[in-house]
Amino acid sequence: MWGSLVVGGEAIVRPRFRGEPDTTCPAEREDENRRRYARAADRFPGVSIADARYVSFTTYRRTGEAVATPVWIAPLPDGRAGFTTTADAGKVKRLRNDPRVTVRPCDVRGNVADGAPTVSGTAIVVTEGADHAAAVSALRRKYGIQFAVVHLGSTLKARLGRGVSTAVVVTLDG
Question: What pTM does this model have?
Answer without folding.
Answer: 0.66
